[in-house]
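Schema walkthrough. Field components (list of strings):
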Amino acid sequence: MKRSLFGRIWPGATAVVLFAGFVFPVYWMFATAFKPTGDIIADDPVWFPTNATLEHFQKAVDADHFWTLVLNSVTVTALSVVFSLVIALFAAFALTRMRFKGRRGLIVTFMLAQMAPWEVMIIAIYMIVRDNDMLDSLVPLTVFYTMMVLPLTILTLRGYVAAVPKELEESAMVDGCTRLQAFVKVIFPLLAPGLMATSLFGFITAWNEFPLVLILNKDAEKQTLPLWLSQFQTAFGDDWGATMAASSLFALPILILFIFLQRKAVSGLTDGAVKG
Amino acid sequence: MKRKLAAAIVIAGMMVSVSACGGDDGDDKNAGPDSFKGQTLTVWAMDGSTPDQWVKDVTAAFEKKTGAKLKFETQKWDGIQQKITTALSESNPPDVLEVGNTQTPAYAATGGLADLSDLKKEIGADWTPSVSQSSVYDGKQYAAPWYFTNRVVIYNKKIWAKAGIKDTPKTRDEFFKDLETIGKKTDAEPIYLPGQNWYFFDGLTIGQGADLVKKEGDKYVSNLGDPKVAKAMEIYKKYASYSKAPKDKDEATPQQAEVFAKGNTGAFIGMGWEAGTAVAANKAIEKDLGYFTIPGETPDKPEGVFLGGSNLAVAQGSEKQALAKEFLKIALSDQYEGQLAKLNGVIPNKKSLESNLKGNAVAEAAVPGSAVGGTTPLIPEWGAVENNPNPIKSYMTAVLNGKSPADAAKQVEDEINKRLAQQN
Amino acid sequence: MSVQTEGTDTAGEPAVRKARVPAPPRGDGRSPGAPSRRHAAAPYLLLLPALLATAVLLGWPLVKNGMLSFQNLNPRQLIQHLTEWNGVDNYQEVLSGDDFWRVVGRSVVFTAANVVLIMVLGTLVGLLLARLGKKMRLLLMVGLVLAWAMPVIAATTVYQWLFAQRFGVVNWVLDKLGWHSMADHNWLQTQFSTFAVVTLLIVWQSIPFVAINLYAATTTIPKELYEAASLDGAGAWKGFTSVTLPFLRPFLYATTFLEVIWVFKSFAQIFAMNQGGPDHLTETLPIYAYVEGVGNQHFGVGAAISFLTILVLLAITSYYLRMVLKQEEDEL
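Field assembly_structure (string):
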């Protein structure tokens, strides 16, 4: 009796504990951001920001060029995600649906490309960009971010393309569609959730990238948000209130995007893929 | 060092009760040639170095005299070395840049800085030798000394009064005795001194006349095993024995001023601007703040201090050399150099301008120390030694944890020598 | 800095890829070859943009990096645009010291410890998700997704704050729980505890990827397989080992491979936490390359280390890559 009660309760109880563990750091970030400085450095932690204040957010947003940096980050991130999705979709289609010489080698090539340690190559990249007079521009950032996410995007999309039953494509072609038409009309709609899910990875990578933009773009108006985020934590010692406010603002778009796309992705995958 | 020094000089500036320093309406009668018209001079100054009023006045004077535009770009401390190095390699570098005094020899050695020996002849005859010396490399002047600061003792008057201490100490032994008294008579921590306040330690070695490096053949090697260095470290250890601060942290983690601001610490050794940090954390501390010069062995000679500061350099790759020099002449003129000293509470590049610090309690406590101040070894190779993780900080922690200075020195000397031997 | 959050990839890939395995090849080989020879160039055309991008944007920096690794490149050379070849000096310098090999060993141990924790705990959480009721599952999902989605820079910053020596909430809790020596504990004081905090951060951020994908994959396991197993009298554990595990194997392999790469390449988490300190003791290969190259401004040496880093990573992953090569061969 007791045992079965325990048996019924433990999964839920574990879930609650795990939930708390996973959420707490995120919660603490937001909570700290809203607390007045006195509460942040109180001897006993203030668990809820009861005297909520927006001063830290104010400080974070008031930083020089904030809105320019937002625009830059959004531009670079969105463009590199779109570019990598388009390029990857072509490649993934070829790799899953066609038979040709060198296919295996290419798959392994992309796996290897996925391993590239970008942080340690930044001097090489810097010298290339410098010698081609492309410093202080969003273009090199966009193309290199595209490349950073491309391999995994290809490998991931391969799975989604493969999950679309070939019969669908074939029957469309029997109906007189060209292969391209079949792709656009039949396969692409089925791939949409997969594309969205895959794009998350690109968003995160490009949104977070730090060392490259630091070295390539010295012009304050050509930088991106990670540089802004780092500025509250250095010279004056740690201004935890402003740092957490900035972190919150920085994380928010990704959190929202994730919650939105993640549901689509999982349901799209479990229903869509299996149903098809 | 620079990051701390500079950063919140802004705050120090605020504390100096600025009376709007007017006088921007020029006494430059000779309006300069129009040949600079249409050009823009870019100046990189570090975060906190340039008060708004100063920027405004200098810009006005510069634009009036040359007809060119002036653009200040504020730089952050994080990753500044990499940024300056790469910037100097680019086709369009900043024309004038602020360089930390201890880093100047290294940049001079790269060939990235222009030779300013002519300028020194023209306007630098009365630059204080001890601060000008960091810009000299291979007999040439590669930068102009700009401003300097050094550490003082910042103390809590209330706690000292509670311990029954009437006067500030004039010698090191008196200071130790006072700390002892505070420890006995109050429940406050007598002094907050973390184990890795390396620039304070550097000051102690300067006070002992110790050298951190020595020449061996044509190479520099560590001199950390020198008994004079050990003596300095013993003094540091004695200070640290009055503190409960972590032995493996520097003064920025946590910000020592914020610890002090809680009102339960007798004193700490810091830069003037850190008083502002303390006040920002706890307004109530403001009325209890006091400052005095770090006392030395004898009353007539204060403790050695590390003279942190900045020079102004011109990029070799800049196409506006003449214009850049015009800027330096204006920025370093008695009027604006004096204004900067006054606004930021920093020590100017000439003795004659020190009168600008009158009435600024922090700066007045700092000036006596600056007379016996010094720097880290002025060799290009030194910069690498201070790179994180700084082996000298490891040395300090090791000694504080009970190792003998000689053993601790042995433990890190290989690393220091390795760094000193790196090619440039 | 972005690397680890790459772990926040997608729910899709492995699960879907898996999904097609049980339903055996439908096209029986006719369709992949597709219409005829006149389309023989098609796959190459489709792949052209990806290959071009890889060659230019990855190949070029790699080659450049390789060239730099044979040069004496310090601030002076960089600023004056000098090229000073110095043969294999950089490699000699790196390989002759014992620093490098110590860092290699540390990187391997660090990667192994993290990946094992991530895979084991991630799998357990994933199986728990499958067992939970709808409401509880949603709750846990939300928690996982929030942790997963935290941008790595923000997450690292938050962890520094949680574990801050003064005013950090972790120390406060430990103190209140009776462990008073932890009141002002400095987590970044020793190698082990710095790694412990970094590991907690990485594992916390990586479990969601494994768990959610694993859960998604389990939902595609046909019920009949379990029914068949239970007819054979298999218990829960047997069901797990005879049905769930074999079904998930390819997924687990692929995920482990990705986690190995991501953990090995972790940069922001370690560097931002303590710059590889105390005393260089938490430098893994990417950090070591960065500190020696960019930090100490010995760009040539840094380039040599990064090249060696790539070799080490290749060696570590070679087992899986060989497997993929073989497996893809079978599929064709």
